[in-house]
Structure formats: structure tokens, C-alpha cells
Known about the structure:
The structure is a homopentamer.
Chain A: E1 2-11, E2 24-30, E3 36-45, E4 54-59, E5 76-81, E6 84-87, H1 90-105
Parallel strand pairs in A: 3-5
Antiparallel strand pairs in A: 1-2, 1-4, 2-3, 4-5
Amino acid sequence: MQLGRVIGTVWATRKDERLEGLRLLIVQDVDLQLRPKASFTIAVDSVQSGVGELVLVTKGSSARQTRVTKDRPVDAVIMASVDNLEFTDPALLEQAYRARLAQVESGLDGYVEP
Amino acid sequence: MQLGRVIGTVWATRKDERLEGLRLLIVQDVDLQLRPKASFTIAVDSVQSGVGELVLVTKGSSARQTRVTKDRPVDAVIMASVDNLEFTDPALLEQAYRARLAQVESGLDGYVEP
Amino acid sequence: MQLGRVIGTVWATRKDERLEGLRLLIVQDVDLQLRPKASFTIAVDSVQSGVGELVLVTKGSSARQTRVTKDRPVDAVIMASVDNLEFTDPALLEQAYRARLAQVESGLDGYVEP
Amino acid sequence: MQLGRVIGTVWATRKDERLEGLRLLIVQDVDLQLRPKASFTIAVDSVQSGVGELVLVTKGSSARQTRVTKDRPVDAVIMASVDNLEFTDPALLEQAYRARLAQVESGLDGYVEP
Amino acid sequence: MQLGRVIGTVWATRKDERLEGLRLLIVQDVDLQLRPKASFTIAVDSVQSGVGELVLVTKGSSARQTRVTKDRPVDAVIMASVDNLEFTDPALLEQAYRARLAQVESGLDGYVEP
């Protein structure tokens, strides 16, 4: 799924009949620091999202697996409103991983026969 | 879904039998300022689009969920004609979001027990 | 769908049994001026394409919707041979669009009560 | 489908039960000159591929259409071993195409009533 | 499938009902040297992954083929925890391939009638 921020709405009167009643929102992709990226998606809303909200977007055939999008010509749906993100800097995790690996390889991990 | 502008037509006489009767349009991707991007798609038309029109394109298996594209070898369909876009500058939304966050964190939001 | 030019063939003797009898062609992506792009696809042929021919390629699950590719492990199919492309320069269409918009906004479009 | 070269193996003990018994290979994408590209894919093997082998990879839902991958959480499968590629330089094909076009347009193609 | 490292969690209270009970993890894409790439995915966990762990992510409709993700609006799932990677430098494999090819072409491979 992709992380994004709702920034607006698309208005479309003439459309496929199976799109009737669906809200079409403009979602700007954001990075983990929540800064806007260059790319955006038009997604159907399934969780009553508002402008400014952080959301998750599901794409492809899975976008048709919500109650509001079933069997409709929709390839992107907002299926969650994000409360919070919690993560560790990937570079730190990489360092910790390499340190553990070096320890294992140098035989310093005090392995004792069970 | 992706935002695009119809710029032309593809003519193809020899084709899979399930494509008979479908209009194949050339859709240039556009950004939110409606400026043409470098990429384009050939999409089947399901809403009688004309050259110059702003449209939404659905891709992948969802492109087969309109009446005209069902069970056909089609991976892109124009399923809406866009009347209007309404959106806020992502940078402004980011600023507002960070301001609210700072306010919450500094305890200045005048929280009162209900 | 994507626009491409057939440039060659892939020979593969050892393969999944459901690929037996299918022609695997190399399709170079081309832009609207028909100049080769950097990317290419290996696609199954469903319309007797020859080297040098301009074609349309359908990708993803929709690539399994032709008679020859049904239920096969195929994610790209040539489903049309292109006779001709007809299109307007996107920059011109954008100018015309902005001109109409400006006219509407300045009230110069001579609106008359019906 | 994508052209790649098998360069190694992924070992994974803890995994979804439907992945039991499948070989997970690392496939480096290659260009038509068979030079390694920057991107790679982890794909399930369905044709007994070995390291160093040139292969075709099918992605998406079509990757579930081989006997070994049916109904499994797999989005990439090696479904053919490549014996040989045969292709013409796209730039040459473009030149030939433009030459034919120019000939047709200047009426020099010696059209004779049948 | 794509190789990644779990770096954190997304918290989302308001969401599609079919997402209830699923853990949403942030997975940073990594290269074969396990260095973090710029891109990341939000994926549902199906193998009890922890932060720092190397994992495989399946995308698209295949992401719905695990027990926990069936029929849910999910386009990315962690379906394996990676123990180890084993691979050869693609440039070395390319050299070996070209050497074999040259040998075959110069008739030096000592072919003997069976």
C-alpha cells in the first residue's frame, strides 16, 4: 500500500455508470517524513477522508475489495486513515544488522552447546 | 486512476476479435496543473471522449469492469470525463499539519477534561 | 495499452507446458513519433505480427484475455497491429484549453439566456 | 515478460505455508545485449533453472498460472529458459519504416493496377 | 517478489472493516547488498515479522493469496522472512557466458560426433 495525503477532489459528471456515488479524491504521494513527492493518484474514498488527511491507498485489483468499490472500474482506493507512523532509520538498522553479522562471523557470540 | 488528456486515435484493422468495435484513444498523462507529462497510454474509450478532453484512466484488471471492456484484452479504459479539479497546494497542507503537530506537542491546544 | 515495434524473437525450448505453441516476440517500446525508447517487453503474439511492425501490447491479467493466451503464464500480449496514429500536439491542446478557460472566466463568451 | 539472468538463491525457512517446496531465485534484469541492469526480482522457479541461465520471468497474477505456483502468494515466476534471442537494431527498423513511408508519400512506389 | 527490511509500523484506527486485525508494516526496499533504497511499501504481515528483519514482499493480486489477506483490500504482503541470500556477481556471470559463447563460435569446444 502507498502512503499519501488527500489534497483535493475530482469532479466528473459524465462517467461509467458503476462510478455513480463514489467520491474521487486526489492523493499526493508522501515519503516517510511526510513530505510531498512528485507523484499523485486519483483514488476512490472508502473511509470518509478529508482534505489534509494522511491515508493509505491500495492499488490494482485489490482496490476492488472494499464494499464501495466491488466490481467497479476502480484501480485505487483509500482504505485507511493513518493515525501515526513509527519507524527506525533504515541506515541504523543496517548498521545493527552488519554488527550482529560481524559478531557471528568472528565467533564472539559466546555460543554454548545446548 | 490517472489524469490525462485525449490527444488522438489509434487505427488498427488487424486485431484480436474481442477488440472489434472499441475506440482506441491516445491519452497523454498530465500533472495537476494540466501540463503534459512525457508518458502516454493507449486506452479504450467508454464515455464518448473527444480530442482535447480531460479524462480519468483506470488501468490493470479494473479496466475490464466497464460494460464495453468486460472480458476483453484491455488494460486501460477511459471511464470518466473530468469537469473540474479542486485541490490545495501540498506544501501548504504539510505546513498546516506540522503546525497542528507542534501545537499538540507543546501542550498549547487548551485541552479540557470533558 | 502500450505502443511498440516488433524487433525480434525469443527461442525457448525448455518452458512451462502451457507456453507450447506460442510465439514469443521482442517488442521495443516507441514514443508517439515512433522513435525507439530504452525499454522493451517479451510478448506473446496473437495477431501474426512480423518484424518491423507497429503493434499494441496489453499487459497484466488482461494479457490472458485473448484466445491464444487464456489461462497461460503470460503477462504481455500483442493484440493489435497498428495501421496509423492520428494526434494533436499536447502543447497546442493545452493552449487551446487555457484560451477557452480564460474566455469563460472573463465573461467574453457571449452567454445568452436560453 | 522480462528477460533476466539467474544469479542466486534466497533461503527462507519461516514463510507462508503455500510457499513450501518452491525454489526462490534471484533474477537480475538484463538488456537485449544481455548486460545486467540495476533492477532484480525474486522469482519462483518452474523450469529447473540454474545459476547463470538466461530466463523469462512472468509477473503479476499471470505468475500464478503455472502448475507449481497456482493459488500461491507469488508475483513472479521463471516460466522459460532462453536458448537464443534474434533481433534487428530498432534504429535500422525505424529507418526502413521511414523510407517506406517517404516512398509511399512521394508516389514513387510504382503502383500498378492488379 | 521484492526484498526489503521491516523498519516500522503504521497505526490506523479508521479503516475498511476487512483490514481489522491486520498488522501494517513499513518495509524499506533494499538492494542485493542489503543497502536501503529510496522506495518503501506498506505491507500486511503474514509471518510475524519484527523490526530490522529481512523479508520478501509479494504485490498485486497475489498479495491476497495468504490465509490472512484473502479477499481483503491489500496489495502487498510479507510472506517470507529471509534467512540468507547467496548469489554471484552478475558481471562475472556475464563474462563466463561470453567466454562460453566465444568458444562455441570459434569451434574450439572439441565437438565429437556421438
